[in-house]
Amino acid sequence: MRQIALSMALLASVAMPASADLITVKSSKPVAETMDALEAAVGNAGATVFARVDHQAGATGVDLQMPAAQVLIFGNPKLGTPAMNADIRASLYLPLKIAVHEANGGSVLVYEDPADTFGDLNIPEDAPFVKTMQGALGKLTGAAVK
């Protein structure tokens, strides 16, 4: 199981372009609590959580230290399928991901705007599924910080 989580974390890090504009949302809660709230919000929204990667635990497992940092990998075929039907290369960037890391006595949620994610593909920024993904990410991160 740990190998799968580490492989997915590597895939997630490779799948995000280095020049992406990232959206950040501050939380007054610690990483684990913020991530628990995010995971619950994702489930309540009817999406599927595919993995929750705990980078700090991975570092500890090899006798290294790092601040708390986790990534939630999740999706909904109702949104992802239209993106992949528009351009199958969207499968490289899906499912969606939100990172949560330790910052200034709380945590920060970070994700890439789907319009940027699909920017190099044959997917228009104003595609209905892109707008829906943007709204969903905003609502999910908003729910996580309440």
Structural descriptors:
146 residues; alpha+beta; TATA-Binding Protein; five-stranded antiparallel β-sheet; 6 helices; 46% helix; TT1751-like_sf; DUF302; signal
Compute the number of strand runs.
5
Q: Any low-confidence stretches, pLDDT <50, length ≥5? A: 4-18
| Structure classification | alpha+beta
Q: Could you tell me the CATH topology label.
A: TATA-Binding Protein
Query: Overall pLDDT, averaged?
Result: 90
Assign an overall shape. Answer: globular
Number of domains: 1
| Known CATH architecture | 2-Layer Sandwich
Signal peptide: 1-20
Keywords: Signal
Domain DUF302: 53-114
Brief summary of the model shown:
The protein has 146 residues and is an alpha+beta fold.
Report on this model:
This protein has 146 residues and is of the alpha+beta class. It has helices spanning 2-15, 31-44, 55-61, 77-86, 114-117, 128-145, and strands at 22-27, 48-54, 69-75, 96-103, 106-112. It has a five-stranded antiparallel sheet with strand order 1-5-4-3-2, sandwiched between helices. Helix 2 (31-44) crosses helix 6 (128-145) and helix 4 (77-86) packs antiparallel against helix 6 (128-145).
Topology:
Elements: H1 2-15, E1 22-27, H2 31-44, E2 48-54, H3 55-61, E3 69-75, H4 77-86, E4 96-103, E5 106-112, H5 114-117, H6 128-145
Signal peptide: 1-20
Pfam family, one: DUF302
Domain DUF302: 53-114
